[in-house]
Amino acid sequence: MGAEGSSEVEATVRAVLRDILALDDTRVAAFRDSTPLFGALPELDSMAVASVLTELEDRLGIVIEDDEVDGEMLETFGTLLRFAESKALV
User: What is the reported pTM?
Assistant: First the structure.
């Protein structure tokens, strides 16, 4: 997919976070690679994590295995984005 695919994945990750966590568009648009997620966003609790990952699978057409899910993957917007790209851009 290249750079275009990468921007599509980023737009999808932002949309999923916005939709599942009911976040404001402006807030999600301001997320940078270093923006903390799990543990920093009260909206992103353990139940929301499952919903976010399921929605990413559906929208990106990927499969996320249980053993791939850890705190590091959800630490920042950048780590979640890189994970999604690694799954979608193969």
Answer: 0.93
